Amino acid sequence: MSEPEYALGRTAGEYDRLIEQAELMRPLTERMLNAAGVRPGMHVLDVGCGVGDVSFLVGELVGEHGSVAGVDVDQAALKVAEERAAAHGSENLEFRAGSITSTEFDREFDAAVGRFVLMFVDEPAAALRHVHGALRPGGIVAFQEWVGDVHGVPSGRQPLLSSMLRLFAETFERSGAHLHMGLDLYARMLEAGFEPDPTPIAEIGLYTGDQLPGARRWALFARSMLPKIVEYGLATESQLDVETLEERLREECNRAGGVIPLTVLMVAQWARKPEPS
User: Fold this and answer.
1) CA distance 106 to 122
2) Secondary structure percentages of the chain, helix, strand, coil, to 5
3) Number of structural domains the chain divides into
4) Which of 21, 138, 164, 219 has the fewest other C-beta atoms within 10 Å?
5) Which residue in 143, 3, 14 sits closest to 76, CA to CA?
6) In a domain, 277, yes or no
7) Where is 27: in which H helix or E strand?
8) pTM of the complete model
C-alpha cells in the first residue's frame, strides 16, 4: 500500500501555518515530553520533524550537552528548518532527509519523538518497530496524535465550526490518513515491542471567540486543505469562502457564547524500549 497523502499540502503557506500552529501546541507537547522523561543531556530523534518546531522544543529541553536529529521526507520543509535553526543559533540540532520506516542511523538515541506523524504512515506499527531499533535499551518513545472526529463542538450552537471540523475529518479519511491514530498508539507501541505507560495524556485546548488564535487556526487550516477538499469533491471554493471564514467562525462563537478548540482530541502516549533481561 502507498503512504497516505498529506492533505494539507507542502507549500510555503502550509509551512507558515505549521510554525504558527506550533506556538499554540507547545504547552501540550511540552507536557508530553516532560511526562515521558525527556531530560537534559539526552540525544533525541525527531521523526517527521517538518519545519523543525518539535526539534526546537526538544533542543531546549536537552540543552547544550544533548542533541536532536530531525528526519523528514519533505526536503523543502527541512530547508526551512535548517534556515530557522541557523537564524536562532541552535547548535544542538541537525536535520536530514529520510523516511520513518527506512532511514538507518549510525548511533543509538536516548529518545524518539513525533507529533502528527504516524497518522500519515501506512503501517504505524512497522514504523514504530524501525524506531525501536534506533533506540538504546531503556530508551523513550513519545508521540502525539489526533482522534480526528472528537472535538466537543455542539453542532446546534456552532454549526459552521462543527461542519468545518467534520469536513476536515472526511478529507483526512479520503487521503488515507489514520483518523484515530491517537487511540491506536498504545496498541501499536505494544505491537512494536515497547512497554507503553498506561496513563497517556488526552486533551483539547480551547479558546474563546474573542481570542484571535482560535478562529484563525481553523481558517488557516481550511486554506491549506482547500485544494484536496476540492479535488475530492467534498466542497467547492465558493462554499468554503476561506477569505471570510475566520471572521464568520469568530462571530458564530461569540453569538453562541461558546469556545473554539485548538485541535480535535490529542493523545500523547509514551513508552520505553525494554532493558535486556
Assistant:
1) 25
2) 45, 20, 35
3) 1
4) 138
5) 14
6) no
7) helix 12-36
8) 0.94
